User: Which sequence fits this backbone?
């Protein structure tokens, strides 16, 4: 079950503002409308007009919540400017990271904001087909979403004549399943086309040539859920929330020794506050914060003042990624964690390119050697070179980011990595064969 | 020995001079590309690595790219499932011998080349008709076929390929990519049921993460 964590009262709420008002039945359209759903759409249709809707989205500075942080207004403009007979808008609700439930939680807590954002996006870029792509793990959620779309269509918020504008926007719910990589936009489009899920070279970006080679806007569900708020409150109001270069709020999946939960936080919040929201470490020292999910990076305890936003994180060798923030105290071993993440990334790579198919596998093997006490003398150099080469020759962001676990460990936790690679010891006493080999009892935790 | 002294040199220089003014036949290799037929794709060859194992990873990229579907291979796919599939295997050296035997009418010992089992196609035909034989619906067709037969029999893939016009290699590549699709009937394999494999992996990752944190986190 997903738990929402309580956040300080004065933190702004954009995505979950309506959650409590409609908590009795989030899928009841009337209750949603009473709580303000589809007001943004009415405003877009009545006052802003199709192209006029893009302006406030651009002015708001909204950046994609799918991980890369691409400016949404710019993406929409590119798709709208592309000459085409057909355009598509796809809401990416796959939520690839198995340890992050934010996107699914949003769809369950307030489906209307996502559907409304999707229709506004389609209206703005001139698309008649809108697709809500979700995970097929939970057939009940798929059925509920299909019902919600039907209700919205019957009420005239989607379908042949969107809110009396004369525009047609057909919304379809498309369940997909069976691969981690389905979260990546070009892979998701491949799946929607009925093909094998391997990424395509970008550019051309989907905004130019996407689904069935037509201009396609792919946006994360959180990105879309922020759009109705922007349409009714204006771009400036949104730009005033969060940090200057990354305005607005985001859902984070917190996880630590004290428990797990989801919270809506303004971007730019210091990591220290997020650690606190996660329940802290109960008196123990914060050793590292893993930011970004399976392909994320480690930040050490003395960088807790880093702002949780796109640019600051990237500078420190992590990224927003899946919106996951994992707190590790002094009982955990960075090399062990990095190995775990790299193993996951290697297992889930698509197999299309050499860095993806073989590079990540080799990286994983170095991790195995390091944590089993059998490193080769060349491993430190090899790790460095290989991570660099994989990142430089990657086809998609998956391989590029999958190197972060080890590169950020090398950058911020070099002594601990060296202990493993040069001296076959594990200071945290987690990698047991090493601890045994080095004569340390494996019971220190 | 010539009677006139120096005549040999003059003759020799004559050859040089005549070649000097003759039209040149040199090809500026490699600056000037050789004239290659548009259909030429180079020679197909499987390479071995330094341990003597085949470098082929059975990724089916080449089979998907081949315009006339002449490439086929057997082996272990990226998910560790052994699967040899059906196709004209002549082009790969390692298969040539078996192919020659088969063409000569003798039985081939390789069980991978046993002819696929026939299935009752009526249900599949209904599925295909419901999707208007549209290859854009490949995933839905595969999922419904699996729901009907419990797995994806080779005969079904062949039939889908024939009816939709989608290449067999494409279909096979697609089906082998998604973790919820399977090729083995549930009765002959210990592999987890379709869809469960992926979910089990995800759950394993979550608990490994929690274990690595040393605490009692729960989702
Ligand atoms: C391996 C990988 C997994 C991804 N998983 C997701 C995902 O689960 N959900 C998502 O919205 N974006 C995911 N993305 C990002 C998408 O490719 C894409 O950038 C995003 O959906 C665009 O929407 P945005 O502009 O609103 O961020 C993933 C990217 C990669 C490389
Ligand atoms: S299947 Fe083809 S492309 Fe893939 S590794 Fe083997 S020979 Fe190479
Ligand atoms: S995961 Fe295979 S190319 Fe990126």
Assistant:
């Amino acid at each position: 079950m997903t738990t929402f964590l309580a956040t300080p009262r004065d933190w702004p709420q954009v995505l979950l503002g309506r959650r409590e008002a409609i908590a009795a039945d989030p899928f009841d359209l009337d209750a949603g409308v009473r709580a303000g759903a589809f007001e943004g759409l009415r405003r877009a249709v009545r006052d802003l007009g199709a192209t006029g809707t893009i302006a406030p989205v651009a002015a708001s500075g909204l950046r994609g919540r799918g991980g890369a942080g691409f400016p949404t207004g710019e993406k929409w403009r590119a798709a709208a400017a592309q000459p085409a007979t057909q355009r598509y808008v796809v809401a990416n609700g796959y939520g690839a990271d198995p340890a992050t439930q934010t996107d699914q939680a949003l769809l369950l807590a307030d489906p209307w904001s996502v559907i409304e954002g999707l229709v506004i996006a389609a209206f703005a870029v001139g698309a008649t087909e809108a697709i809500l792509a979700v995970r097929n793990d939970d057939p009940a959620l798929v059925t509920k979403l299909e019902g919600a779309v039907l209700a919205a269509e019957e009420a005239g918020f989607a379908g042949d004549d969107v809110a009396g504008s004369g525009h047609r926007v057909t919304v379809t719910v498309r369940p997909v399943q069976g691969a981690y990589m389905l979260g990546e936009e070009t892979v998701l489009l491949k799946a929607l086309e009925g093909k094998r899920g391997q990424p395509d070279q970008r550019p051309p970006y989907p905004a130019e040539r996407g689904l069935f080679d037509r201009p396609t806007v792919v946006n994360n569900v959180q990105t879309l859920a922020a759009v109705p708020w922007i349409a009714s409150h204006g771009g400036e109001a949104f730009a005033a929330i969060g940090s200057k270069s990354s305005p607005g709020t985001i859902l984070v999946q917190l996880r630590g020794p004290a428990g797990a939960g989801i919270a809506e936080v303004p971007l730019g919040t210091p990591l220290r506050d997020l650690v606190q929201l996660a329940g802290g470490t109960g008196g123990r020292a914060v050793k590292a914060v893993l930011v970004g999910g399976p392909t994320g990076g480690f930040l050490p305890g003395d960088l807790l003042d880093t702002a949780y936003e796109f640019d600051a994180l990237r500078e420190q060798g992590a990224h927003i990624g899946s919106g996951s923030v994992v707190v590790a105290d002094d009982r955990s071993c960075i090399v062990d964690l990095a190995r775990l993440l790299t193993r996951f990334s290697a297992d889930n790579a698509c197999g299309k390119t050499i860095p993806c198919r073989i590079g990540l596998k080799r990286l994983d093997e170095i991790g195995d050697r390091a944590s089993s006490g059998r490193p080769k003398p060349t491993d430190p150099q090899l790790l460095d070179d290989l991570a660099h080469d994989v990142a430089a020759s990657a086809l998609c962001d998956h391989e590029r980011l999958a190197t972060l676990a080890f590169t950020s460990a090398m950058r911020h936790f070099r002594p601990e990595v060296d202990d493993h690679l040069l001296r076959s010891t594990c200071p945290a006493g987690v990698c047991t064969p090493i601890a045994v080999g080095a004569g340390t009892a494996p019971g220190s935790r | 020995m010539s009677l006139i002294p120096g005549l040999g040199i003059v003759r020799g220089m004559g050859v040089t001079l005549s070649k000097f003014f003759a039209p040149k036949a040199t090809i500026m290799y490699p600056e000037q590309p050789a004239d290659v037929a548009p259909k030429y794709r180079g020679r197909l060859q499987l390479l071995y690595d330094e341990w003597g194992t085949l470098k082929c990873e059975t990724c089916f990229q080449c089979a998907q790219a081949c315009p006339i579907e002449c490439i086929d291979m057997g082996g272990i796919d990226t998910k560790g499932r052994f699967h040899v599939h059906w196709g004209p295997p002549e082009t790969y050296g390692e298969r040539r011998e078996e192919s020659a035997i088969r063409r000569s009418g003798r039985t081939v010992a390789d069980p991978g080349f046993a002819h696929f089992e026939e299935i009752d196609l009526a249900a599949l035909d209904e599925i295909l008709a419901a999707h208007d034989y549209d290859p854009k619906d490949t995933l839905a067709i595969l999922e419904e076929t699996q729901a009907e037969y419990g797995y994806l029999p080779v005969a079904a893939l062949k039939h889908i390929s024939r009816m939709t016009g989608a290449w067999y290699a494409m279909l096979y590549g697609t089906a082998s990519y998604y973790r919820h699709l399977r090729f083995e009937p549930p009765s002959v394999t210990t592999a987890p049921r379709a869809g469960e494999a992926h979910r089990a992996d995800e759950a394993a990752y979550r608990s490994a993460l929690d274990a690595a944190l040393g605490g009692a986190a729960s989702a």
